[in-house]
Amino acid sequence: MNLLVLTPLVPYPPHDGDKLRFYHFLRHLKARGHVIDLVCLTRVKADFQYEIDLRQLCRHLYLEHLTDGELALNLLGGALMGQSLNVSSHFSPRLRDTLGDYWRSPLGRSVDVVLAHRLRTAPAAFEGNPGKPVVLELTDCLTAYAEQLKKHSVARFSRRLAAWWDYWFLKREEEEWGERAFKTCVVSEVDARALRELGLPAGKIAVIPNGVEAARKGPSQRPQAYPPGAATVCFVGNMGYAANEDGALWFLDKVWPRVRARVPGAVFAAVGGRPRKVLQKRHNGRDVRVTGWVPEVEPYFTHSTVSVAPLRVAAGMQNKVALALGLGVPVVATPQAVSWMPPEGRDGVIVAGEKGAFADGVVGALLNPRAARAFAARGRKFILRNYQWGESGRKLEEILEAARKASP
């Protein structure tokens, strides 16, 4: 099967969130013998350095950098046209013209199915498309996320204002593009239910959860950010993402002082992504470490005493929770961070929403690490039994094949 794949990011290196999910999908499809033409419209120009790695996954590759100026014009144009900021942000005349030429070329004529990653690529997937079926890999229900964000004062005012704007347009756009697509894929049943509430028929929606990779054999080196012998609390994720930043700041302001009062030698590490200055300046080199981007996240989990997911706004499956549990690391999480898990999956997670209870959970894991690891083992069994990348890739492949067969 020949696939045109559109994505608003460079799916490499596979560390977190969308990159992790989409990289594993592409790797599975490549291993199964499918031919991939990959189109990436990215906001991060530095990711162009991974071009060689991407070319190993595909027959044809197109990379384009969306500049700050282009983004600003897109947002203004989208506001005038009545589009969500999410969708309007990734318009590109160059990409439109490139895809027009592509569809007229032998490569384009050979395509069986279009796989559009994220809602913002949906317009490009359909414009100029000569009738090829489209599978929309939505991942999360953005309407549901915007609804959470606009109700809570957990982010900057500008983000809340954007959420109020986007909410009304996303309600329409997710239903409209979902109706046009052969199938819309999301990461959890929570997201599927939200799409059904918008009016998208259940038969148009497929749930494909993320997977968890098995821990590599042999011990890994202890990260330099972790002092030798110190009890360490980690929060791993893209710290430049608004929900993660808010969670880290809430933890530092409301929870961490309570933990330090009872476990004075403990260290907290906010690991990953591109944190803004508001979080960077909390790094003191002693009990608070803000690492920024790291080449591997697994050692930060395995060498920690406990992992936390202090999210007050969350959408989709939280890889930080699944990865930690899959490695057998105790997890303390807010209810929002585990909303994607069925009730039986939460038996191995310490769930706490209030600052005092959250601190109690962290302290308990720090003071009784063996008991905490034994408790986390229950969550590990559930994760490894139910979340495998091979199974997720198989589900996506079946949907793409069904789309190909349904095409006239």
Structure description:
This protein is an alpha/beta fold and 408 residues long. It has 2 domains: 2-211 and 389-406, Glycogen Phosphorylase B (Rossmann fold); 232-386, Glycogen Phosphorylase B (Rossmann fold). The chain contains 17 helices and 13 strands. The strands form 2 sheets. It has a 7-stranded parallel sheet with strand order 3-2-1-4-5-6-7, with helices on both faces. The model has no long low-confidence stretch (mean pLDDT 93).
Set down the secondary structure blueprint.
Layout: E1 2-7, H1 17-31, E2 35-42, H2 51-55, E3 60-65, H3 68-81, H4 85-88, H5 93-104, H6 106-109, E4 113-117, H7 122-126, E5 134-139, H8 142-151, H9 157-180, E6 183-186, H10 189-198, E7 205-207, E8 232-236, H11 242-262, E9 267-271, H12 277-280, E10 288-292, H13 298-302, E11 306-309, H14 319-326, E12 331-333, E13 350-351, H15 355-367, H16 369-386, H17 389-406
Parallel strand pairs: 1-2, 1-4, 2-3, 4-5, 5-6, 6-7, 8-9, 8-11, 9-10, 11-12, 12-13
Helix pairs in contact: 1-17, 8-9, 11-15, 14-16, 15-16
Q: Could you name the CATH topology of the largest domain?
A: Rossmann fold
Major beta-sheet overview: 7 strands, parallel
Please state roughly what percent of the residues sit in beta strands, choosing from under 5%, 5-15%, 15-25%, 25-35%, 35-45% or over 45%.
Answer: 15-25%
Strand order of the largest sheet: 3-2-1-4-5-6-7
Structural class: alpha/beta
Overall structural domain count? 2
Span between termini: 15 Å
Helix content: 40-55%
Please name the fourth-level CATH homologous superfamily of the largest domain: Glycogen Phosphorylase B
Query: How many beta-strand runs?
Result: 13
Q: Which regions have little confidence, pLDDT < 50, spanning 5+ residues? A: none
CATH 2nd-level architecture of the largest domain: 3-Layer(aba) Sandwich
Number of helices: 17
Radius of gyration: 21 Å
- What is the CATH top level name of the largest domain? Alpha Beta
